[in-house]
Design a protein that fits this description.
The complex is a heterodimer of chains A (about 180) and B (about 250). Chain A is of the alpha+beta class and about 180 residues long. Chain A folds into 2 domains: about 10-40, no CATH class; about 50-180, Yope Regulator, Chain: A, CATH 3.30.1460.10. In chain A, about 40% of the residues lie in helices and about 25% in strands. Chain A is built from 6 helices and 6 strands, in the order ααααββββαββα. Chain A has helices at about 10-25, 30-40, 50-55, 60, 115-125, 155-180; strands at about 65-70, 75-80, 90-95, 100-105, 130-135, 145-150. A 6-stranded antiparallel sheet of chain A has the order 1-2-3-4-6-5. Chain A is elongated. With about 250 residues, chain B is mainly alpha-helical. Chain B folds into 2 domains: about 5-175, Orthogonal Bundle (Helix Hairpins), CATH 1.10.287; about 185-245. Chain B contains 5 helices and no strands. The longest helix of chain B has about 80 residues, at about 95-170. The chains are: A alpha+beta (about 180), B mainly alpha (about 250). The interface of A and B includes residues 71, 79, 82, 94 and 144 of A.
Chain lengths: ~180, ~250
């Protein structure tokens, strides 16, 4: 049977092996192996509890670029410290279908002219890929400019790691870009 | 703007007008949860209405089948009566023919009545069908709206969890090195590190230059190229010259 398949070019050798195996009448071993793959791919929504050990043994932690820990509380949140980006703190929370990755830029109180800064942010936010900028209010009333990205809670570990790494870089870049407005 | 978002926005704007822009944050979750409950209730009501409507349609369809059977029965009577009338006329039984004719007339009136009943029943079923379509659309739209609202509520809640956590970290360790580090502080840290490593690099370069310079000087001195250096052969030559009658220390 001839079928067209769409893959990334670098996976061609793997596909070739799979193709050869599937031409044999008896491909039980491969089918058995793929069962594990499909279980892994149909991953349900992640939770903070399932995500923490995955991140701690994942690519970002293994390279020593990030340290992950749990901020305990009513709603636990993962803290990622990005050593490569001045140890900026990136927080990750999951609720229902959504995962949020966020870093604090600077307090609103330190901004000289919020109207001008907001104008600049609205015009330049698009430079920060996969990220939005918003103002958040802490329980004590203190307000902060924050940068965050939202993704589906069903995202793969690789996607979540990519988002964390992108956000840490964006956070420091955004702080540099908007520093002139901060006193 | 969708109706459901318009409603949400109006509520948020109201909160902001009452208590300032910061109130939007505090009220977003409450308003979203209220919207989800409202939308859920509307959806449940629409599902109940749909079930009722489909039940009524099904009952009416059964009635229609009965009404159509009755109509068919009348049609059969008319055909048979007319056939008998024709047969009586052919045989010259005029009185009997007239009798059959009158009966056919009577059944035809019944048929017309029944036809109107069937038509009315068909109209009712079609009307139920239209209502069912509208309700189904409403349910699909309601389900999509709830999904959207839940996603928005999840986003707002996840952000609030992050806010609480970062505020807790800031409060628990303020002043220490591990306090919640903002991107601006990290940027300053990166720049400080860069300055430090730049200074270190400069110092190292300077040191390297000095040591390599000193080594060169030493080599030149040994080779007797640099002034102020006295090689043993020079000293000996000076004394040999002295013995030959010249002043010591004079260069040859």
């Amino acid at each position: 049977m001839v079928r067209e398949v769409w893959i990334l070019p670098q996976h061609a050798p793997v596909l070739l092996k799979v193709e050869k195996l599937l031409r044999k009448p008896n491909a039980h071993a491969l089918i058995h192996a793929l069962r594990g793959v499909s279980t892994a791919m149909s991953n349900g929504s992640v939770t903070i509890q399932s995500l923490l050990p995955a991140l701690q043994t994942g690519r970002l932690a293994a390279s020593g670029r990030y340290t992950f820990s749990l901020i305990e509380g009513l709603e636990p949140v993962i803290q990622a410290v990005a050593h490569e980006y001045g140890d900026v703190h990136v927080y990750l929370a999951v609720t229902g279908e959504i995962a949020i990755v966020q870093a604090t830029l600077f307090p609103v109180a330190r901004v000289r002219d919020t109207a001008r800064l907001n104008d600049r942010i609205l015009r330049t936010e698009k430079l920060f890929d996969l990220a939005n900028i918003s103002i958040d209010t802490h329980p004590d009333g203190a307000e902060f400019y924050v940068i965050y990205g939202a993704l589906r809670a069903t995202s793969t570990l690789a996607d979540i790691e990519f988002e964390i790494d992108t956000l840490a870089r964006n956070a420091v870049d955004a702080a540099a870009a908007y520093r002139e407005f901060v006193k | 703007m969708s109706g459901i978002f318009m409603k949400l926005w109006t509520a948020l704007r109201g909160a902001a007008n009452e208590a300032g822009e910061a109130a939007v944050d505090a009220n977003a979750t409450r308003i979203l949860d209220q919207e989800i409950r409202d939308a859920d209730r509307e959806l449940r009501e629409a599902r109940i209405a749909l079930a009722e409507m489909m039940g009524k349609q099904s009952v009416e369809q059964n009635h229609l089948a009965e009404k159509r059977a009755k109509l068919e029965e009348y049609a059969d009577y008319i055909r048979r009566t007319l056939a008998k009338q024709k047969e009586a006329e052919g045989a010259g039984r005029t009185a009997e023919a007239a009798q059959h004719g009158a009966l056919a007339q009577e059944v035809a009136a019944k048929y017309a009545e029944q036809e109107a009943i069937v038509k009315a029943s068909e109209n009712v079923i079609a009307e139920y069908g239209r209502n069912i379509d509208v309700l189904k659309q409403k349910i699909t739209a309601g389900e999509a709206a709830i999904r959207t609202l839940k996603q928005r509520a999840d986003t707002v809640k996840a952000k609030q969890h992050v806010i609480k956590a970062s505020a807790a970290v800031a409060a628990a360790s303020s002043g220490t090195d591990t306090h919640a580090r903002s991107a601006l502080e990290s940027l300053e840290r990166i720049e400080r590190r860069q300055e430090e490593s730049l200074a270190q690099m400069e110092a190292a370069n300077k040191l390297a230059a000095e040591t390599s310079g000193a080594a060169l000087e030493e080599r030149l001195r040994k080779a007797g190229i640099l002034p102020g250096t006295s090689a043993a052969s020079d000293v000996l030559a000076r004394f040999q010259n002295e013995a030959a009658g010249r002043m010591p220390g004079q260069a040859s």
